[in-house]
Amino acid sequence: MSTRLARMDILGTSLRVCVKDLDAAIAVYERLTGTEALRFQRGGVSVAAVGCFFLMSGPEAELSILRKITATIAVKDVDDAVADLKAVGADIIAGPLPTPIGRNLVARHPDGSVFEYVDRQQGQAA
After folding, report:
1. What SUPFAM superfamilies does the record tag this protein with (predicted)?
2. Contact predicate 106/94, CB 8 Å
3. Mean pLDDT calculated for residue range 98-122
4. Is the peptide bond before 96 cis (omega within 30 degrees of 0)?
5. Average pLDDT of every residue of the chain
6. Which of 68, 75, 76, 54 is nearest to 109 (CA)?
């Protein structure tokens, strides 16, 4: 009897860094990565995507929740990720939900690690 291994299309990962001074941090990470920051708001949190880093600054109540997510993983399709995550015993904590650039979900892996999964599938809500 063979078992199909779950295999999602992972396109890349982003590390989450909570900072007090977003402007100062952007200058550092732009210099280190050689890329320009893309800024956006996520609730009350200001976010700057710089290379493979998500720099986040805002109210501690919101940051404390965001710190629980280890990393953001870009996938081809969030729906496929849900199926693969469930196949390995992960719990879907939130989502899939639409975002300004696609969709996301948050999942807790069987080992307790929490990750955000994102795609760029515009206009699709689960």
Report:
1. Glyoxalase/Bleomycin resistance protein/Dihydroxybiphenyl dioxygenase
2. yes
3. 89
4. yes
5. 88
6. 68
**What one-letter code names the amino acid at 18?**
C
Burial (CB < 10 A; 0-12, 13-18, 19+), residue 123, is exposed
CB 36 within 8 A of CB 91: no
Whose tokens are 């496929």? That residue is 80
Q: Order the strands of the 38-42 sheet from edge to edge.
A: 38-42, 45-50, 53-57, 10-18, 71-75, 114-119, 102-108, 91-99
β-strands 71-75, 38-42: how paired? unpaired
d(C-alpha 71, C-alpha 74), whole Å: 10
Which pLDDT tens digit goes with each residue over 51-78?
999 999 999 999 998 899 989 999 999 9
More confident residue, 99 or 124: 99
Q: Are 75 and 117 in contact (CB under 8 A)?
A: yes
How much is the pTM? 0.78
Tell me which residue of 14, 30, 21, 100 sits closest to 56, measured CA to CA.
21
